[in-house]
């Protein structure tokens, strides 16, 4: 889990990666989107201080990148997931760890149920 002190130490780095993802998406630079997304996720995992999780994620990063590229998500879906970065950071800042866990699960599993439902309404 990420405690308040860890969040405070890493918020600038996480914010920069999240903003860089959004900017790259805005200019259509998917390569940079994926690079910054990877850096965001790795920084978030490192913030946990969980050495086993950090090691696993660092080893899997290249494979995860390949999966992200292969998914070739439409721009609106990719933007939706990138927007979750800022939402997760807000939840962490506000101490709402349970809501952050739920969002992180959705983010990782790409559960679009609420997103697709609201988009088609």
Q: Can you characterise this structure?
A:
With 121 residues, the protein is an all-alpha fold. The protein has a single domain (4-120), classed as GntR ligand-binding domain-like (Four Helix Bundle (Hemerythrin (Met), subunit A)). It has 6 helices and no strands. The longest helix has 23 residues, at 4-26. It is globular and about 35 Å long. The N and C termini lie far apart (35 Å). Mean pLDDT is 84; it is low at 117-121.
Features:
121 residues, mainly alpha, Four Helix Bundle (Hemerythrin (Met), subunit A), 6 helices, globular
For the largest beta-sheet, the strand count, sense and barrel status come to: none
Termini Cα gap: 35 Å
CATH topology: Four Helix Bundle (Hemerythrin (Met), subunit A)
Helix tally equals 6
Give the mean pLDDT: 84
Structural class: mainly alpha
Give a topology summary:
Blueprint: H1 4-26, H2 30-47, H3 51-71, H4 75-93, H5 97-109, H6 113-120
Helix pairs in contact: 1-2, 1-4, 2-3, 4-5
Task: Report a brief summary of the structure.
The chain has 121 residues and is mainly alpha-helical.
């Amino acid at each position: 889990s990420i405690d308040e002190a860890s969040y405070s130490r890493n918020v600038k780095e996480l914010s920069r990666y999240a903003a860089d993802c959004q900017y790259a998406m805005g200019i259509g630079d998917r390569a940079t989107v994926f690079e910054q997304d990877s850096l965001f996720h790795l920084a978030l995992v490192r913030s946990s201080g969980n050495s086993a999780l950090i090691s696993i994620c660092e080893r899997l990063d290249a494979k995860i990148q390949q999966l992200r590229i292969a998914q070739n998500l439409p721009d609106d879906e990719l933007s939706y997931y990138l927007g979750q970065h800022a939402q997760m950071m807000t939840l962490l800042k506000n101490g709402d760890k349970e809501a952050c866990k739920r969002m992180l699960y959705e983010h990782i599993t790409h559960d679009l149920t609420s997103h697709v439902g609201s988009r088609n309404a």
